[in-house]
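Job type: complex structure
Entries:
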Amino acid sequence: MNITQTLDAKGLACPMPIVKTKKAMDTLSTGDVLEVLATDKGALNDFKAWATAGGHTIVDQKEEAGVLYFYIQKA
Amino acid sequence: MTVTAWTAAQVARKVIDNKEFFILDVRNADAFEEWKIDGHNFDYVNIPYFELLDGVEEILPQIPTDKDVLVVCAKEGSSIMVADMLSEAGREVGYLAGGMKSWSMYLEPIKVGDLANGGELYQFVRLGKGCLSYMAISEGEAAIIDAVRFTEVFTKFAEDKDVQIKHVFDTHLHADHISGGRHIAEVTGATYYLPPKDAEEVVFDYAPLEDGLTVNIGSSAIEVGALYSPGHTIGSTSFVIDGKYLLTGDILFIDSIGRPDLAGLAEDWVGDLRETLYARYRTLAEDLIVLPAHFMIMDELNADGTVAKRLGDLFAENHGLNVEDEEAFRSMVTDNLPPQPNAYQEIRHVNMGKITPDNDEQTEMEIGPNRCAVR
């Protein structure tokens, strides 16, 4: 997987992880993959719902040492 | 336009007084579907905050201007963002301070009635979770039954009433919420009672709550008497207070009955549940006022916000008390049960003292409705 850009949203509370992710996505092109790091547990469901609503694909996600990693491919 | 922060207590007043209210819930659809702020005269729109990042213009027609509007999210951050956007668009709106988290935690103490010799009985209504706790006070002393984990609400209330908490009971080992009973007993020096049959795995000392146990509150003897009533759990115990009130725990609710499966043994306990509801309770005075440990729907609230009804009326009206056929009853309480409460196994372990999660983890465990009933 080629990561086009990485966004560090660790320590940010809702809604900032999604707000920043959306801004970053707006600068990318179709097919690009954005890596997002977040620590807000509420982000888990929100990222899924937000990506679905926007047609983006979460190609992978994982949790390591309390940090959530999302890999989102732009629609 | 200004954005107002509403407290959970202010929202609770809207619920209890049956006021009109408009809620814009900006959590995602699953969360809203599962659990929201219920009110008789509330209207709702659910639009996740992440669909509003480009602006709120499109939803303005859906937001009324003739009633109070409250924006709600899980913790408050997203609701503040959306409320600010609506405010910039010229609308006057509020947000719920602390979000659904604070709603889940809020307790409204309401007086249920007077006891003999100047005593009083209070019901603590946790609107956001449907939990009901009780405090009986008389002549400087108090007993608490089924306290939820916000123990300071109870100790502060006792201080304000100038009473000393002497006895703390749990009707059973709870599976949907974390009990505050043990902690209240620790900080006040009160005795903490649990039914021994529910307490086989607990890792702390407790006083056994056995059938027929009575304690007095105050010197003029308000009597609190225990009545073994298994079925929701094997140890479930009811209380008769002052010969007037029947505290049913999670055995009998206003519009439903307890489910027998939260400790994993529905088939084994269905007979106990039947026996309690159709034999033991039938021997009690019909004029007793039933006070359960939960409500599930807003229709179970009385006009003053209490959850209470005459036992005789429940015999006539509660569907779960009117299934004559034993097989039909067995099938009703063991088949097609609703999903279990969120994290119910972990919550049982917390109440046994086996695990000690921090406050945030406890909040997470208690997210969502209580789901202790079969309707």
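Summary: Helices of chain A lie at 16-27, 43-54. Residues 5-73 of chain A form a domain with the Translation Initiation Factor IF3 fold (CATH 3.30.110.40).
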